[in-house]
Amino acid sequence: MLQAEALTISYDGNKIVKNFTLQVNEGEIVSIIGPNGSGKSTLLKGISRLIPCESGRVRIAGQELRSMQNKRISQIMCILCQSNQTPADMTVEELVSYGRLPHKKWYERLSMEDYEIVDWAIEQTGLAAFRKRLVVSLSGGEAQRAWIAMALAQRPKVLLLDEPTTYLDIAHQLEVLELVRTVNQELGITIVMVLHDLNQASAYSDKICVIQKGSLALTGKPRDVLTRDMIRYVYGVEAEVEFVADAAFPRIHPLKKAQPMAH
């Protein structure tokens, strides 16, 4: 479904992402993890063409993004960044309706079908009681759901999420991740998201991609990637990795900062 091949992305002459390749199959949830400053968000923005790539290419459904018009890309792929802001007077319903713009000509108004899709997206995200509320009046978790509803109204095949749980308390983090899983399983949307929490990545991902200093360190299923050796090597942390009998994914228990390796 989504292929990033040998992507290199630079800022001010510094290579932030280096020769990075990622394969995401249709219907997968793939989480990108790695230490702060390793290039996770930069990679996601490069894949979405929010920022230019120095080299490499991105394909979606076999078609190279460079050969596609921006409007067409917006119809099939949506990215939600860490900090999303709306005008102070924008309601949830108005925000969600913006998801229909990639499917309209600049002079077209929303049709009955568009309004039905907006209603559907609001229902899918449990926001029916909030549709007339101002987005700025919502809690962090509610606002994040409103942005996801906007993305659903866009009807994308691929949804990119840059740290969707940032600034949320634990309950709202889990609420958003459960919504992401529902969107994936019930609507068939392919998800690529950047996460910090290793246990959340373990529980909500089909595949995990580890990025370290801009390069691909490891990719695979959570049980194969989230090992003590990987956590020590990539994060510099000693951890216990627990496999519970009724869970298909490991649980991570950080213990202490790892001792530097002797030379």
Shape: globular
Give the helix tally.
9
CATH homologous superfamily name?
P-loop containing nucleotide triphosphate hydrolases
CATH topology: Rossmann fold
Could you please describe the fold and organization of this structure?
The strands form 3 sheets. The chain has a 6-stranded mixed sheet, with helices on both faces. A 4-stranded antiparallel sheet has the order 2-1-4-5, with helices on one face. α4 (112-124) packs antiparallel against α5 and α5 packs parallel to α6 (170-187). The protein starts with a strand and ends in a 6-residue tail after the last strand. The chain is globular, with a radius of gyration of 19 Å. The chain has helices at residues 40-48, 70-76, 92-97, 112-124, 140-153, 170-187, 198-204, 222-225, 228-235; strands spanning 2-11, 14-24, 29-33, 55-60, 63-64, 77-80, 158-162, 190-194, 207-212, 215-220, 237-243, 250-257. By secondary structure, it is an alpha/beta fold. The protein is built from 9 helices and 12 strands. The protein has one domain (2-257): 3-Layer(aba) Sandwich (Rossmann fold), CATH 3.40.50.
